[in-house]
Amino acid sequence: MPITDLTLRKNTELRSVTDDYVDASTRALTARWAQAWQELVEEWQAVITIIISRKAAGTPLTPWQITQLNRTQRALSATGAKLQELAAELGPDLDDALRQVVSRTAVLNEEIIRSQMPPLDGRILPSFTRTDQDALEQIVERAMTNVVAASVPISEESLDAVKSSLLRAVPSGWHPNAAAAEMLRRVRGGFSGGLTRALRIARTEMLDAHRAANRAQNAANSAVTAVVWHAELGPRTCPSCIAKHGTEYPPDTPGPYDHQNGRCTFIPKTKSWADLGFPELEEPPSVFQDSQSWIDQNPEDAIAAMGPDRYRMLMDGQISLSDLSHRVENPNWRPSYTATSITDLRRKAAS
Question: Most buried among 2, 16, 266, 303, by the most CB within 10 A?
Fold first, then answer.
């Protein structure tokens, strides 16, 4: 039951391992999209040169005429093919990373649970059940299915963004070279929108796979009685995560459902040493710091994280910690807990 320093270190290690895989995938995807753009840039430079030249000659092209240029058609065709290729690669590119995240999560989660067990000097530890390989494989397969489904619209949406970027008016009064550079920047921005979506898919599915593996491991062990929401408390922590930090849930609870790009985790909490069958052993106190203690001991960081208005209302007793967070339903993603607006908190404080 005691959450020890070792528990927190192992939890930090688990989060770090997951972040490392996410970051490595981010770098690989970014490099691949940059390479793809370099394979297309000459085509788009040629199209833009024609557009700028016609404008400089006093015979500017209409948007319809721009789309009908043979050079534009060729550039759009090459870009569409490249975007389809990139979207199709997303699943295979993430396969190994997803498997590693799930596997490492299962191993480190076991170490987190064991860190709360009593020192037994050679005596038999309480039985421990590791999630079977089939269950972990199902988590990977679900994640891969989600990746493939989410990546399908990337090519069409990105191609539309490229086309829209191209057809925006040529910057007026600019030197031709500067105008051409600006138009190329716009087109690349449309192309890179697909990368933004790919990165969001990669991060979401890897973190959700990590959380699913955690959930499976916690639910499989009778020694685990709850999971505890853990946020990295600091001046940049969002108010919602501060509010949720330390709250407890049943072991099979999915999540934690923090906001997009959130870094919160669930720490498994085991039975007391007495309930595990060792009533003669003195159990040390938990080292887990709750949110209110952190706020009291770190007022400057708390004000930076929550903002002065939230902090004042909380310290004056006008609102409670739980009021700082509210659940938002999102049918296209998952539920999430986000910070309650200042307006709603003021309304709550006035009621």
Answer: 266
Q: Which helix (H) or strand (E) holds 10?
A: helix 5-56
Q: Judge if 170 and 287 occupy the same domain.
A: no
> CA geometry: angle at 265 spanning 264 and 267, to 5°?
145
* Residue 252: domain span: 224-351
Q: What is the largest CA-CA distance in the chain?
A: 93
- Looking at 221, 254, 286, which one is the last position of a domain? 221
The domain boundary, picked from 221, 245, 278, lies at: 221
In terms of Cα–Cα distance, which of 48, 28, 39 is closest to 90? 28
Q: What DSSP string runs through 147-212?
A: HHHHHTTHHHHHHHHHHHHHHSPPPTT--HHHHHHHHHHHHHHHHHHHHHHHHHHHHHHHHHHHHH
First to last CA, the chain: 39
Phi, psi of 236, rounded to the nearest 5 degrees: -105, 5
Q: Nearest-CA neighbor of 240 among 107, 309, 337?
A: 337
Residue 110 tokens, joined: 């076991």
Alpha-carbon distance 143 to 133, whole Å?
15
* Whole-prediction pTM: 0.83
Is 26 found in the same domain as 76? yes
How high is the mean pLDDT in each 10-residue block of the chain (351 residues)? Answer: 89 92 95 97 96 93 94 97 96 94 92 87 59 87 93 94 92 90 96 94 91 89 92 95 96 88 88 88 92 96 96 96 94 87 93 83
**Nearest-5° Cα angle at 82, 78 to 86:** 175
| CA distances in angstroms from 142 to 90, 136, 148, 205, 334, listed in the order given | 15, 10, 10, 9, 15
